[in-house]
Design goal:
This protein is of the alpha/beta class and about 575 residues long. About 55% of the residues lie in helices and about 10% in strands. It has a six-stranded mixed β-sheet with strand order 6-7-8-3-9-10, with helices on both faces. A four-stranded antiparallel β-sheet has the order 2-1-4-5. α14 (about 360-400) packs antiparallel against α16. The longest helix is centred in the middle third of the chain and has 41 residues, at about 360-400.
């Protein structure tokens, strides 16, 4: 049994506190199918999220099978299923893959058991015939069935559905409501459905009506019309406006005992009609040994990590637009750098040696100018090509991760609610992005510095700093993605971050000492460029140093700072993923 005891949810308003939920109490027996209805803004979804533990109430408590959820902890992930208004499936996956992914993230079972669970859920929700169909090709009703199927894999004892019939045609709406009713008859499951529609009320065991956060009625469909003195369910909403919520609340309290007795009789009769005993509440307390034997165990970290990583690669290779963009950047960006990287580094000349040659004073002066100009060109090219690679790798890093978390925030929140560990989620992103960074950085280095530019110096050191330049930007942008409200905001901030790299690095224009001291610690391009220049052959590095007014940092310091950038980005990503943000 699920019981609500004097639930209140209060928020601050300009003039006085506003009650989104106002002293709501009710009881729902096992094996029951209930609708929560009411005008827009009455608190339907708020109440559903309060039951789920997503929204924290101001006062009151929920009691589940004799267990006070406020004192003894929220529902276990396997006990509850929550179907939100938004889609919880990826368009690139098939129906079967979506359900399998949900099962592997939520159920600790061997392969045979998992296959049985998936097959049973497909059959139960009527999706068997379209199991191989991509999610993006499903109709609205089929997507609702899929969302239900993904919740049923763990066999929840209470199923919460938020507007699952919204936007459906009448036939599809009725089919979904009938499916929910059937689900409530299995294993004593409680099914609660928030809906704005009053078209299928006769299919519910009970209906709860809210008005501006106040419970105005909870009873069987047969007595609702009588209680509100209307001829049809569609007249209930206009009727609510005839009285203040407090008046409706007092009216309900007068009738509550009598209506609950009728509700209990109807509940018993429903099961007796199909030849089954009505579900009885389970014991409120069980000893630890019995609980350990009966409670499903959540999959471990590595199982969730492997599932999330495998799913991410499936989505990546099936998202044609993103795949083409990645390939284009990997191919085109090195070509752009190669256009400015002359394969012949040129021969450096010691300008003092010119004066020792058998030349007239005018010829010596002219030769010195020519060699100085040549050296300037060589030094400028070396510094510019290395910085060009770093900026383009930074742009790749931004594209890698700017939308990685923000673009699937709601799905991630739903999966966290279902028991997915934030650490497993972040590590799966880290593994996926690490492979991208490695491929991008290696090809940039190999094509430009080995094939086209004939790099002179420590090639391994240069590759290391190019890799860290990409990794630092990817990591920081992942942190931005995990802490912003929308993918558009994350993309914009990440582009700004890349855009500031060149002017604030001090390579293009020398910065004021104070400004450099304030900004350069945060500019990964400066540290990657300094490290890359340290990898250049000594004579050529010296020529470049005479041209660029900004000094190179020591290679060891560059490694440490870039490593800090990577770590800070990952820490920000973990903090952002752990933080709950449903809105």
């Amino acid at each position: 049994m699920l019981e609500a005891r004097n639930i209140c949810l209060e928020v601050e308003a300009e003039e006085e506190p506003l009650f989104l939920l106002n002293d709501i109490s009710f009881c729902i027996p096992r094996g029951h199918f209930m609708a929560i209805v009411g005008p827009s803004g009455c608190g339907k979804t708020t109440l559903l999220k309060a039951i789920a533990g997503i929204k924290e109430t101001t006062s009151g408590s929920f009691v589940w099978e004799g267990r006070d959820l406020a004192e003894d902890g929220d529902f276990e992930p396997h006990e509850i299923g929550y179907v939100p208004q938004f889609s919880i499936a990826y368009d690139e996956l098939t129906v079967d893959e979506s359900i399998e992914s949900s099962a592997r993230l939520r159920v600790n079972a061997d392969e045979d058991e998992l296959n049985d669970i998936i097959d049973n859920v497909l059959a139960e929700t009527g999706l068997t015939d379209i199991a191989d169909r991509p999610v993006k090709l499903l109709s609205g009703g089929q997507k609702r069935r899929l969302a239900l199927a993904m919740e049923l894999v763990s066999g929840p004892r209470i199923l919460l559905c938020d507007e699952v019939t919204s936007g459906l045609d009448p036939r599809s709406e009725r089919e979904i409501v009938e499916l929910l009713h059937a689900l409530s008859m299995k294993d004593g499951r409680i099914v609660i459905s928030v809906t704005h529609s009053l078209a299928q009320m006769e299919l519910y065991d009970s209906i709860m009506v809210l008005h501006r956060g106040t419970l105005t009625f909870h009873g069987t469909p047969a007595v609702m019309s009588h209680y509100f003195s209307v001829n049809s369910f569609e007249e209930v909403y206009p009727r609510l406006t005839c009285r203040e919520p407090d008046e409706w609340g007092r009216s309900w309290l007068k009738h509550r005992v009598d209506y609950y007795k009728r509700l209990e009789k109807e509940h018993v009769r429903k099961f007796l009609e199909i030849g089954e005993e009505p579900p009885m509440p389970t014991p409120a307390k069980r000893d630890d040994e019995e609980a350990a034997d009966t409670r499903p165990v959540q999959p471990g970290f590595f199982t969730q990590f492997a599932t999330l990583l495998g799913r991410r690669f499936n989505i990546f290779f099936r998202d044609r637009a993103q795949l083409i963009l990645q390939i284009a950047m990997i191919v085109i960006f090195p070509l752009l750098v190669a256009c400015f990287a002359d394969s012949d580094w040129g021969q450096l000349t010691n300008l003092n040696d010119v004066a020792g040659q058998n030349l007239s004073p005018g010829e010596v002066e002219q030769a010195i100018k020519e060699q100085a100009n040549a050296n300037i060109g060589i030094g400028t090219a070396i510094s510019g090509v290395i910085m060009f690679q770093i900026i383009l790798l930074g742009l790749m890093g931004s594209n890698n991760s700017a939308r990685e978390v923000a673009g699937e925030r709601l799905i991630m929140e739903k999966e966290k609610f279902s028991g997915v560990r934030p650490a497993a989620y972040v590590c799966s992103k880290l593994a996926f992005l690490s492979i991208l960074v490695l491929v991008q950085s290696f090809w940039m280095f190999f094509f430009v510095d080995i094939c086209c530019w004939s790099f002179r110096g420590s090639a391994s050191d240069l590759f290391l700093f190019l890799l860290l330049a990409n990794a630092a930007m990817t990591s920081v942008c992942l942190g931005i993605s995990a802490n912003t409200k929308s993918p558009d905001h994350a993309s914009l901030l990440s582009i700004y971050l890349v855009g500031f790299q060149l002017p604030l690095s001090g390579v293009l224009l020398a910065l004021d000492d104070v400004l450099a001291m304030m900004t350069q610690p945060f500019i990964s391009a400066y540290w990657a460029w300094s490290g890359g220049m340290r990898a250049v052959q000594g004579d050529y590095r010296d020529v470049a140093a005479n041209i660029v007014q900004t000094q190179f940092a020591e290679a060891d310091i560059c490694l440490v700072v870039l490593g800090i950038h990577v770590v800070v980005g990952l820490v920000l990503a973990y903090i952002g993923v752990r933080r709950t943000r449903w809105e």
